[in-house]
Amino acid sequence: MRLRIMCLLAAAGLFLTGCGSSNSGKNEEKSGNSSSSSKAAEAPMIQGYERVWFDEFENSKLNDSIWSLKPTQGEQKNGELQTYTDSDSNVYVRDGNLVLRARKSGEGYTSGRIIADQKGKDFTYGKVVVRAKVPEGKGLHTAVRLLPTDESVYGEWPKSGELDVMETIGSKVHSCYGTAVFGEPLTSKQGTCELARSSFSSDFHEFTMEWEPGVISWYVDGNLYQKTDDWFTHTPGKTDPDFPAPFNQNFQVQLELSVGGTWAGAPNDATNLDKAEFLIDYVRIYQKHEYDTNVERNVGVFRNADATGNLIVNGDFRDDEKLDDEWYWAFQTFTTGEGKAEIADNTMTISTENSGSVDYSIQLVQAGLPARIGKKYKVSFDAWSDEPRSMIVDISAPDHDFGRYMEDTKVNLTQTKQHYSFEYTEEKRDDPNARIEFNMGKSESTANIYIQNVRYELIN
After folding, report:
1. Contact status, residue 359 vs residue 442, Cβ threshold 8 Å
2. 248 in Cβ contact with 241 (< 8 Å)
3. Is the peptide bond before 236 cis (omega within 30 degrees of 0)?
4. Dihedral of the alpha carbons of 191, 169, 405, 159, in degrees to the nearest 10
């Protein structure tokens, strides 16, 4: 029986609260500020696995038989602000931890990035275990990634694939993300783990990814929060490679601390760069003795409508659900957007303090909606605002580079409640994880918006 779980931002993951505890790995006395003088340690053996390679960072400097510095070459991507250097002020070992350090440098920033690209350190399939502590502060973005050794196998990114063992952003250090990136168009499957009583910056946590031929799973401190068995790759004009491509080739481990970018945003006055350190306690790679490569892709499970024909869950806002976990309705802010959402009296109220720089800076969404090719759907809702203003509604494809099934549609709101209704025919693909979006950012007005009776219906 295949497992299919709802997740944050994608259709193949599980959002957990309190999904980790920090008591894993080495002695808890080992921290970024400790003065450990213990001899070099070996990674423990795991039953059913062979130990491929590991680095406990017990030496006084980076092990160049495993790691290479990876300084910036060419322009930065994704709006990032840092320059990766080969300086020992950005990458060094201290007290038994690898330190990737971001620093201010003139009008910009420098930081550290390393990759295990030495002979024999790339691998296909396995268990990746990393224990780390992340920095807090807007604009800081940490990542442990697996990148293909040879992009020519399936083509340049994203066709070649990318596996993110973990990512965090410094403004939301209670959350971490595990992601598979692939396809053309760009597609991703991402899950989120949220800590209820601590953060990933307050202590070390163990991040694990199990990569097998037909399924990839992500854990925090031994607790599963994301699993996917659905991915693909595509080359225009050619027959698509068989599943599990592109995740059936050699990958390399990369560790990085970036500054800025479209996700993390730019640092602000509260970002303390004196503490902008990504601390990695260990990296451990294991493999099973053998893997069954005779696997099939899971195309997904499509949500059924309720008794009224509505494919939206809690569309009448009868339930006062949490809005920060994306388990059905989710309220999100990006770039410089600031606001809040609440449910009361069968009404969703969106309050905006700063509308941000893009339309999705203030955003209300629900994922997991079915979209089947050739079918016609209707989107409807009631809405009004405290003063005349606008918002944008659409049906998007978060697993397919956030393309649009129903195009962005501007809605002009007034102080009088009005009913809005739109129809579209799905022409691109079958997708069990379409998403309704209400985008309220980049607006001259920050007036409150009120939404009721949201419906998404199959009409033929």
Report:
1. yes
2. no
3. no
4. -80
* Domain 16-288 falls under CATH 2.60.120.200: yes
CATH code, 329-458: 2.60.120.260
| Tokens 């390399």 sit on residue | 252
Rounded CA-CA distance 194/186 in Å is 26
Residue the block writes with tokens 């009776």: 453
* Residue 390 CB partners (closer than 8 Å, separation 6+): 410, 411, 412, 413, 443
106 dihedral zone (left: phi>0; alpha: psi -120 to 50; beta): left
| 3 state SS of 39 | coil
- Tens of pLDDT, residues 175-207: 999 999 998 878 889 999 999 889 999 999 999
Buried b vs exposed e over 372-391: b needs ≥16 C-beta within 10 Å?
eeeeebbbbbebbbeeebeb
Tokens linked to 386: 């405290």
Cβ-in-10-Å burial (0-12, 13-18, 19+) of 313 comes to middle
Select from 190, 186, 181 the least CA-distant residue to 163. Answer: 181
Strand ranges inside 121-204, DSSP E: 126-133, 140-148, 162-169, 175-182, 187-194
Omega prior to 158 cis, within 30 of 0: yes
Q: In the chain, which residues fall in CATH 2.60.120.260?
A: 329-458
Both tokens of 429, joined, read 């693909």
**CA triplet 97, 102, 103: central angle to 5 degrees?**
130
Range(s) within the chain of domains with CATH label 2.60.120.200: 16-288
Distance (Å, whole) CA 119 – CA 67 = 10
Amino acid at 58: E
Query: Helices (H), strands (E): how many in the chain?
Result: 0, 29
Neighbours of 399 (CB within 10 A): 30
The residues that bridge with 254 in the sheet, in sequence order, are 115, 145
pTM, full prediction: 0.70
Strand-pairing partners, residue 231, are none
Q: Give the model's pLDDT for residue 190.
A: 92
Q: Which of 396, 387, 262 has the alpha carbon at shortest distance from 336? A: 262
Residues of the chain with pLDDT under 70: 1-40, 235-238, 326
